[in-house]
Amino acid sequence: MKQLVDLLIPHAQEGICLAFSGGVDSSLLLAAACRAVREAHSDKPVLAVTFATRLHPHNDTAEAQKLAESLGALHQVIEVDEFSDKRILMNPKNRCYLCKSLLFKSLLQAGENAGYHYFCEGSNLDDTKVYRPGLQAVREAGVHSPLIDCELTKNQIRRLASEAGLSTASKPSTPCMATRLPYDTPFDYPLLDRINRGETLIRDLGFYNVRLRFHDPILRIEVDTKDFTRFMEHRETIIKAMKDLGFLYITLDLEGFRSGSMDEGLPGNR
After folding, report:
1. 198 with 241: CB under 8 angstroms?
2. For residues 4 and 32, is the Cβ–Cβ distance under 8 A?
3. pLDDT given for residue 62 in this prediction
4. Which end of the chain has fewer CB atoms at under 10 Å, N or C?
5. Which CATH fold would you assign to the domain 2-163?
6. Span 224-253, mean pLDDT?
7. Within its chain, how far is the Cα of 34 from the centroid?
8. pLDDT band at 54, cuts 50/70/90?
9. Is the backbone peptide bond immediately before 217 cis, with ω within 30 degrees of 0?
10. Cα 134 to Cα 94: distance, rounded to the nearest angstrom
């Protein structure tokens, strides 16, 4: 944590503007940034920006604001409509790059309007080892990734967040909803909303990691392999809920939950 704080202290007087999703990565980064501001005796609090978008669930916005304010940061919500870029609706392989370009353009505008000049976000070292085209947009925008600079992995971040007493330490990741569909498959908001509602229904049954991957007309459900037995105990409830949402064929992925499973068919991915 000290290494992360020390990295941020020189930027405290510039004003630190941070993309804040409310997940564990950005929460640790925000906590470190707020500590850096205090240690630098800067009178400019960290500006934590949360994006309200069509591709990310909005469930956590209130929690993000509460956490940001408890850490001493200013919190701002910016609405960004990714669907305004029609290319994104086609779910191309560079969709993440297109989305991040829109988001970080908004971040820079918000920060500069408020007099902030150092911009950062919460990608971690693990993100550099998988397919993450959005990182190119981050670099092009001149936004910094301090967790990567400090070579922090997801597991290390969760441990540090727990030590810091952050409520998000054990929070599951909630990536962009478009990751639930194969690349080059067009989508719309009603479909993504049905998928999000389906994941919420299963999560409310007590499952930690849940992904619904939709290969029309097949719905492929991913949960942690250790939860398979319990999943089957809820089999009838889950099938009925998914069919009520309009999904036709309901399957359980025997490989279990794994982040980025839609990337497995890409060159260089297994």
Report:
1. yes
2. yes
3. 86
4. C
5. Rossmann fold (3.40.50)
6. 98
7. 21
8. confident
9. yes
10. 8
